[in-house]
Amino acid sequence: xxxxxxxxxxxxxxxxxxxxxxxxxxxxxxxxxxxxxxxxxxxxxxxxxxxxxxxxxxxxxxxxxxxxxxxxxxxxxxxxxxxxxxxxxxxxxxxxxxxxxxxxxxxxxxxxxxxxxxxxxxxxxxxxx
Length: 129
Hints:
mainly alpha
């Protein structure tokens, strides 16, 4: 313990400010993106900036319009399996509104029609896996 290593104080063994490098002192290089807690780089997947031109804000996404409102369909028939399959995922789950763009009232009617079609075996409850 009597040996002194250059750059370390004898009592604590901590590095002196002269011996600390940029990485040890917490200084990031100008080319590296700023980090978030958890060690992941900021921005989108792969370190890309989130957003469109200039990396500012979210990218523009078109507002989804309800298919049933535009086509003026009031009653959603439970017998129309081809129509209902477009709103059921591959594993048999009902796809949520935020993904399909269906309005609230038609999503409720759609859910009821899918459940009726499942009960009379026109649509599967789940797929085998």
